[in-house]
């Protein structure tokens, strides 16, 4: 007999089509270098998180905006091929699809990115609003937060149920001030978390102190990411868990690894993982995604992830009071 169906998630925010090249070093002005690898891939924080969830067995839709151009058609086709529902995507003839050119330098593990700017998303309406209102979770990036928060506020004011809200806060999030109480899962980087509260990121105890301040401001749970130093979670009543970054993975590019972490973290919670397990799950998924130039093609499914975690050993997360 099959287990319970995982909660339905709608990811709202950015989708891009990216041209990627892996080089030994970044070129200087008017210089040409030979690329070791070149790829065309879909990107965007919310869209990539949706791909991760679909690959790990969580029913997911994506809501965002593309232009009526070939880039938009390809970006949506890549999502649909992963099993992501795209029926709520706005096709806007006045706004080109966000596209990027990315050079990743293997020698320095750095990258240069040139991207189209995009305007804020409009208020959610029609199919997009229907999907978000009916979801168990809405996962948003910096572009998706404001329209989702507005819809959540309207639903609450009308006495209707509303989805839980997960926020990728690695970038500055327009519309967040005064609304952290809407956020059930707040996931900044350690740097963006400490910057929000005016703390020095390297000061002893700064990250946990700022996480507790976010909880006091109304966040349901806080997870701070620190790249190669792993991640940590805090929740009310002193709950705390931490997990180191996964090791033993040959890194090609870290492009999109943060977006992958966000998708994997919410997937793990939807699949019933506790906080220590969810952090290990997300850290390992993000690390394994770095085996490829793009942020999606090496994302593991649950079987591959389980095998990796089993080989690595599962006893490396710590829990304790906040």
In brief:
The chain is an alpha/beta fold and 322 residues long.
Structure description:
One of its GO terms (molecular function) is kinase activity. This protein is of the alpha/beta class. It has helices spanning 45-55, 70-81, 126-134, 145-157, 190-196, 206-216, 257-270, 275-289, 302-312; strands spanning 9-13, 16-23, 37-43, 60-67, 90-92, 99-105, 110-115, 137-140, 164-168, 185-187, 222-225, 231-235, 239-243, 318-321. It has one domain (9-15, 44-99, 119-313): UDP-N-acetylmuramoyl-L-alanine:D-glutamate ligase, CATH 3.40.1190.20. It has nine helices and 14 strands. The strands form three sheets. Strands 5-4-1-8-9-10 form a six-stranded parallel β-sheet, sandwiched between helices. It is globular and about 60 Å long. The termini are far apart.
């Amino acid at each position: 007999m099959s287990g319970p169906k995982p909660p339905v998630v709608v990811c709202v925010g950015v989708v891009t089509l990216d041209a990627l090249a892996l080089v030994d070093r970044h070129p200087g002005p008017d210089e040409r270098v030979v690329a070791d690898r070149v790829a065309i891939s879909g990107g965007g924080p919310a869209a990539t998180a949706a791909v991760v969830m679909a690959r790990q067995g969580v029913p997911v839709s994506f809501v965002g905006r593309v232009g009526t151009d070939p880039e938009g058609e390809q970006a949506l086709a890549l999502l649909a091929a992963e099993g992501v529902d795209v029926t709520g995507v706005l096709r806007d003839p006045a706004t080109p699809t966000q596209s990027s050119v990315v050079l990743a330098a293997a020698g320095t593990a750095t990258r240069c990115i040139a991207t189209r700017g995009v305007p804020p998303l409009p208020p959610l309406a029609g199919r997009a609003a229907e999907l978000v209102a009916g979801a168990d979770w809405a996962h948003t990036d910096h572009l998706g937060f404001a329209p989702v928060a507005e819809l959540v506020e309207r639903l609450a004011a009308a006495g209707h149920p509303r989805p839980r809200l997960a926020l990728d806060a690695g970038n500055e999030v327009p519309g967040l001030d005064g609304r952290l109480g809407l956020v059930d899962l707040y996931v900044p980087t350690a740097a963006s978390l400490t910057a929000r509260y005016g703390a020095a990121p390297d000061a002893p105890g700064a990250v946990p102190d700022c996480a507790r301040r976010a909880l006091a401001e109304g966040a349901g749970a806080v997870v701070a990411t620190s790249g190669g130093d792993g991640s940590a979670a805090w929740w009310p009543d002193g709950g705390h868990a931490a997990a180191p970054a996964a090791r033993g993975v040959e890194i090609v590019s870290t492009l999109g690894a943060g977006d992958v972490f966000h998708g994997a973290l919410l997937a793990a919670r939807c699949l019933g993982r506790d906080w220590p397990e969810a952090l290990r799950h997300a850290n390992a998924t993000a690390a394994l995604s770095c085996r490829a130039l793009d942020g999606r093609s090496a994302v593991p499914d649950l079987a591959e992830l389980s095998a990796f975690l089993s080989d690595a050993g599962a006893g490396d997360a710590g829990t304790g009071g906040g």
